[in-house]
Amino acid sequence: MKVLAAMSGGVDSAVAAARAHEQGHEVTGVHLALSRNPQSYRSGARGCCTIEDATDARRAADVIGIPFYVWDLSDRFHEDVVEDFVEEYAEGRTPNPCLRCNERIKFAAVLDRGLALGFDAVATGHYARLVPGPDGEVELHRAVDAAKDQSYVLGVLTQDQLAHALLPLGDTPKAQVREEAARRGLLVADKPDSHDVCFISDGDTGGWLAEKLADRGVNAGGDIVGRDGELLGRHEGSWRYTVGQRKGLRLGTPAADGRPRYVLDIEPVSGTVTVGPRESLAVDGLEGTRPRWCGAAPTGPLECTVQLRAHGEPHRAVVLPDGDRVEVRLTDPADGIAPGQAVVVYDGTRVVGSATIEATRSVAGRSA
């Protein structure tokens, strides 16, 4: 097959490209230039979107012995990922930019361009497995290395996208991938993983959002209140908070019982942030929109597990699809679930699909 290897400049994508090449595929490496102004993205060897990464990816391609190109997708990335990130926070939601990048850039813009150029598949360094299904479909499964599993951020992919994907690392623990990179002579073998939002240069998400949202006239301040409406303090921007947050509230008045307070809700129009005890974070149901199914959509209630954060624990649940909406009833309550995040549905290790969380229902009956 003709394979387009998306090379971020990190160790995972380099080894994925090397494995695809070793398997006999005709591999071409491509690095995605995602910043309109490279100096505005953070620097340092972190493995995703930094100004050093194009050089690291090119060197890896040279060692592997494959052609290499840089594709400028900065406008598409700005519109579909960066602007989406800002708008979600302005609406009081907590987005996952990596998930959006996979959905709209790596497996949409890149795949579409690759297919148009005659490539058969896109290979990435994600930790997840692709398995042939009983009906000829391609199934997405969790990686062997549970600690590195990235099936959650791939849960937005459709069957057509999965059919044109290669995930060479899903059956290998991360430590072995680094060892393999060293054996292959890849200089990125010891390069640290990326953890921060790639397009925020200094890692200060709150400060970055404050600058972007101020230009849009978004309410810069608001009240911090208790569950009973009692005024506890003021803040300088609701986008600095997310549901479940404990640190950084800066409340001068301690709770009557002396226990920590957590963010329970964010109201973006008034800028009101509601806080309360940890037990008030527990939710046993949620509503999702924009469902994306990896195969055929379930035709009725589905007993399954769901994951609600990129590195969260699975929760037993019943999923009830209803057209462009999904209801999820949690058998195991979850804490600190924020609208804007994704709910990814699993049948065992297989990813069934995903949806964007629009609202949650607390164990106590409060909706957020």
Number of strands: 17
List unreliable stretches of 5+ residues.
Answer: 42-47
- CATH topology term of the largest domain: Rossmann fold
- N-end to C-end Cα span: 48 Å
Helix and strand succession?
Answer: EHEHEHHEEEHEHHEEEEEEEEEE
What's the architecture of the largest domain in CATH terms?
A: 3-Layer(aba) Sandwich
Essential attributes:
SH3 type barrels; 368 residues; five-stranded parallel sheet; alpha/beta; six-stranded antiparallel beta barrel; Rossmann fold; ATP-binding; Elongation Factor Tu (Ef-tu), domain 3; single chain
Summarize the structure in words.
By secondary structure, this protein is α/β, with parallel strands linked by helices. It has three domains: 189 residues, 3-Layer(aba) Sandwich (Rossmann fold), CATH 3.40.50; 62 residues, Adenine nucleotide alpha hydrolases-like domains (SH3 type barrels, Roll), CATH 2.30.30; 81 residues, Elongation Factor Tu (Ef-tu), domain 3. 23% of the residues lie in helices and 29% in strands. The chain has seven helices and 17 strands. The strands form four sheets. The chain has a six-stranded antiparallel barrel with strand order 12-15-14-13-16-17. A five-stranded parallel β-sheet has the order 3-2-1-4-7, with helices on both faces. The protein is globular. About 2% of the residues have low confidence. This is tRNA-specific 2-thiouridylase MnmA. It comes from Nocardioides aurantiacus. InterPro entries: MnmA-like, MnmA-like_C, MnmA-like_central, MnmA-like_central_sf, Rossmann-like_a/b/a_fold. Keywords: ATP-binding, Cytoplasm, Disulfide bond, Methyltransferase, Nucleotide-binding, RNA-binding, Transferase, tRNA processing, tRNA-binding. Catalyzes the 2-thiolation of uridine at the wobble position (U34) of tRNA, leading to the formation of s(2)U34.
